[in-house]
Amino acid sequence: MAAARRFGLPLLRKGTPASVNAAVHLLTPPLAVAILLLLGGALGGWVAGWEWATWACLILIAALAVDVAIALAQARASWQVWASLLAAPAFIAWKAWVQVIAVFGVRRAGEPYQPTPRR
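Structure (tokenized):
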């Protein structure tokens, strides 16, 4: 989060294809967070009675799932990699917790990094 805040805009201003690519990767949420936000949007749409919003979020989740499947097929991933997708819901829940901690940690962005002691 601190890196995105510090380097995102300067990379976009530079304007080279490599810098824009780096900025996009830096400023967009990880896939797990994107899915989590879409799940929240689907739930919010359902609670609010906005059927169109619920369906839009679910369609985007399906599109992301197809994107991951295409990437794995193109990479000729082994069956173990495909099977590891069964852990995706647990990973998404863990990633949600990590992101909450990161968001609240941004407030302390001015504090210097304290490295762990080495032996």
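The radius of gyration is 18 Å. The chain has six helices and no strands.
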